[in-house]
Amino acid sequence: MRLSNIQTWSNIKRYFLKILLVCSKFTDSSLVMEWADKGDIYQSILKAKDKNAYFEETEVWWVFIQIIKGVQFLHSHQIIHWDLKCANFYEFSNGTIKIGDLNVSRVLKQKMIMTWTGTPFYTSPEIWKGKPYDYKSDMWSLGVSLYEMCTLNPPFDCEDISILNSMVLKGKFKPIGSFYSWDLSQVINSLI
Predict the structure, then answer these.
(1) How far is CA 90 from the centre of its chain?
(2) Which of 10, 31, 90, 114 is most buried as measured by Cβ atoms within 10 A of its Cβ?
(3) For the stretch 80-108, what's the b/e string if a residue is b when 16 or more beta carbons lie within 10 angstroms of its beta carbon?
């Protein structure tokens, strides 16, 4: 994470500066982070694929509720994450899920922004179109992540970047499995 980004977040700046003071005794700078002992949601997706198993709906809701609370916190502090994805949702053995990888996050100082960043599979249509975007882009990425938890694949999955662009802009994707509730399907559809 760039120091210039951290300095705009007073609560993170103090934490970061404490780490710098602790680490300044060493020749290399280090960032001490919390250990997610269960890895991330993407790793859990890969394990589920290996077992040919799907997440229980209660697990999907549990992750969603925690992530949406984290996103709400970020947005309430005018922070847009820009790279919400399953690999950035960290799992702990006590059941806690936390959002990580804030290295491309920004404080949103105006209503809309225009840059390209993030992971293509989770990139919102506004960004693909080169149009300004806001917090809704994070919500779209959250919908893609929720879909991926249900199907074990992203809704728009393609090796060719121009075809991926076209797929995202069309916005058509297969429904999640019928073993998931209508409510979960509607939440995903409302986000993507």
Answers:
(1) 10
(2) 90
(3) bbbbbbbbbbbbeeeeebebbbbebbbeb
CATH of the domain at 158: 1.10.510.10
Residue 154, Cβ density class (10 Å: 0-12 exposed, 13-18 middle, ≥19 buried): buried
Q: For the residues of 84-114, what is the DSSP string, one character each?
A: --GGGEEE-TTS-EEE---TT-EE--SS-B-
Q: Say if pTM beats, i.e. exceeds, 0.90.
A: no
> Which residues, at least 6 apart from 109, have a Cβ–Cβ distance to it below 8 Å?
78
Domain match, 20 and 106 both: no
Residue 172 and residue 143 share a domain: yes
- Same domain for 20 and 76, yes or no, is no
> How many residues are listed for the chain in this entry?
192
- Domain hosting 112: range is 35-191
> Hey, which residues does 106 pair with through a beta bridge?
80
Does residue 110 surpass a pLDDT of 80?
no
Catalytically active residues are: 83
pLDDT tens digits, 116-156: 455 666 676 676 567 666 667 888 889 989 999 999 998 87
